[in-house]
Amino acid sequence: MNLKTLEALNAARRERRAVVLVTDLADSGDRLVHAGESVEGELGTAIMRAFQTGRSGSVEADGKTFFLNAHLPAPRLVVIGAVHISQALAPMARIAGYPVEIIDPRTAFATEDRFPDTTLYAEWPQEVLERRPLDSYTAIAAVTHDPKIDDFALKAALDAGCFYVGALGSRKTHAKRVDRLAALGATQEQIQRIHAPIGIEIGAASPSEIAVAVLAQIIRAFHERGMEAQEAAA
Amino acid sequence: MQNDVHLDAARDPLIIAEAWAKEGREVALATVVETWGSAPRPTGSHLVIDAEGNFHGSVSGGCVEGAVVTEAMDVLGSGKPRLLEFGVADETAWRVGLSCGGKIKVYVERLG
Questions:
Q1: Which of A63, A99, A119, B106 is the most buried (most CB within 10 A)?
Q2: How far apart are CA A92 and CA A195, in angstroms?
Q3: Do A92 and A120 belong to one domain?
Q4: Per-residue pLDDT of chain B (112 residues; tens, 9 = 90+)
Q5: Which residues constitute the domain of residue A36?
Q6: Among all residues of chain B, which has the CA nearest to that of A66?
Q7: Which residues lie in coiled coils (chain B) (predicted)?
């Protein structure tokens, strides 16, 4: 591999941009293809497939053998709300391979003491998400119950095509939330993507049990994420 | 950038390969390009090797890394990439041992 190609590949991985590295196995000539870039012919079709599935593999095209290595960003989880559920969710998600960031402007909640070893932002979601935009490889769980904190983040998550959008609250709470999100300009289709009440059905009652239910739902959403999310990334 | 937390720089073979190359080390990169059966590491996995035989990452569960490191020395010397095959179909490779019964193809190339 060319060192310049490796530098560009590592830069893309650091910045959470999806890329496919194409290597000609005969002479190890390589080329980095970014999501959304179009490549012609059979090779182009195979590259498109690699972006969609995240699977790497060899392909015969134009009389040559190429290896396509798909580098899609690792999934991550943004939690809105430094609450009791988040205290259980953060370490669990990290163990499951989903690094966590917690955002809560309430400085009494967002303390290092309550969240050791966790990336924590004691700021409004508006501020954090502007610096660190959401993307289709990000899951978001809004668990504050407070429209002032949750709503903006939920709308931003729907617009960014986050692979998972979950919101804590009863059906009644959610019905009101739906009205507010619609008023913010969210479409019916977007609103239907929200998992609410949050978490898979396991009879979860305690904050830790709810965290398990939410994490399970996130993992399922990641593995079921469709081409739709891939295209949003492009 | 804080996104770095998503890449484990201390263990990520591609990050290590770049750092080694920039230190002026000779670096070979091995990549799993095909797997059959119950291969331990998925296609696309990397092992990075320097001229002294230091390595990071993996292309199997530790079964064939030794053989890949040896081949990498030749690749660093010649500059020519090699495609290696390990698995049940190959007697020699079987001795090196993919005991899980899988079969893998590993591409070894020089970085530079």
A1: B106
A2: 19
A3: yes
A4: 344 446 777 789 999 999 999 999 999 999 999 998 777 788 999 999 999 999 999 998 777 899 999 999 999 999 999 999 987 555 554 555 555 667 899 999 999 8
A5: 3-71
A6: B33
A7: none
